Amino acid sequence: MDEFCINEGQLDRGLRQFPVGHCYTSSVDPEKGLMYRGIPIRDFIDMSVEDVLIKLLEPLNGSYSFSDFTAADLVIESKIIDAIHNLPKTMKEAPMKVFSMGLLLLGAAYSKKDHKKDLMTLVALLPHLVATVLRFCDPKEDLEARYPTEVSKSFVERFIQFLGNEHVENQELFLKVMSIFIVLHMDHGGGNLSAFVGKATSSGGVDVFSSLAAAMCALEGPKHGGANSKVMDFINEIPQDCFENDDKLKNYIIQCLEEKRPIFGFGHAVLRAEDPRACIFYDLIIQHFPDDPLSRKVLALRAIVPKVLGPVEKISNPYANVDAASGTLLTLIGFDNTALYTVLFGLARCLGITAQLIIEATALNDGKGVPIYRPKYLYRDEIK
Predict the structure, then answer these.
(1) Which domains are delineated in the chain?
(2) What is the pLDDT of residues 125-183, one digit of tens each?
(3) Could you confirm whether 224 is annotated as catalytic?
(4) CA-CA distances (angstroms) from residue 40 to 26, 37, 44, 265?
(5) SS3 206
(6) Is 167 one of the catalytic residues?
């Protein structure tokens, strides 16, 4: 099918497969998986978040350097942090809404209405904001706000510093996994809902922070964010005796299919092979937690589920996606509040979305940027 030829049967289908522009930061290959700037994602796992962000910004021809993202000692002023912690306790159950609100507060307080300056401010302040949201929304206990007087230079170290990880047994591994998690979730092509919403909002002329607030509202929806927490719920719902042997687990998955229950963590809209990001997380689980009962469960699902889903004609990809293992690894390193996983996902995705919207707003069309998004809708007088 000609991708530039649209027929009526494609309308009202969520713009699926509609080409609307170019993405210069990342792409998803059906076999190779996620690529940053044409390079397989596995090649980035030992890089810092800052260096990966600079790579995504490469189309801007060296407009950013590592020092741009490490020199700022800026922290969020205490009144804004206090405003979040003084919200009604009922809002602890809406972490993504608190996150979006926090981004709007940052925009009101710190935006310079300049994309480059706002990106540097975002990188400086985002770790503090997300850590504050996570501490406020912690479902297990009431955590006080943190105001460290000395701020780490590294993006991930700064996040952990504000988050607090005194309860974590292996601090070095916690830092490593958090860094890899952010790198692997930073970008995912231009057409996913949060990236699209962020860029569409930006095209109206608002600042980076408002655009990201809109993007995070999109990410909150259960059809977009939150998949890895659903995987954890799915694993916990499987009766323990199903993991005693392969046949019992296989029969349970078959039963789920027959009852039309979703098999969370498997399948992908674009990929036709196991997600390389899932492979990276599985490798870390095998390396650091080979004998943990949760590890054995997630590895058993990796082995059995594709064998059950593979023969099903309407399933185009039976293999594990990134969410199949990411929540398990977060739980194993001590970050086990599954209700907050989407906020952590948003922390990473804010960086990739910002790279995309800055390219669209400042570099395309001879520097004029992409015009305001305005797709055409056809009037119809009744629903068919």
Answers:
(1) 26-224+338-362 (1.10.580.10), 227-333 (1.10.230.10)
(2) 999 999 999 999 998 778 888 887 677 778 999 999 899 877 788 999 999 999 999 99
(3) yes
(4) 10, 9, 8, 21
(5) coil
(6) no
- Marked catalytic residue, from 115, 185, 268, 275: 268
CA distances from 253 to 302, 311, 325 (A): 12, 13, 17
- pTM > 0.90: yes
Alpha carbon distances (Å) from 331 to 178, 326, 373: 12, 9, 40
CA dist 130 → 52, 157, 347 (Å): 20, 13, 7
From the list 224, 288, 292, 336, the catalytic residue is: 224
Mean pLDDT to the nearest integer, 254-261: 96
In this predicted structure, what is the pLDDT of residue 18? Answer: 84
- Catalytic: 323? yes
pLDDT at residue 74 in the model? 78
Please tell me the predicted confidence (pLDDT) of residue 73.
67
Distance CA 326, CA 232 (A): 10
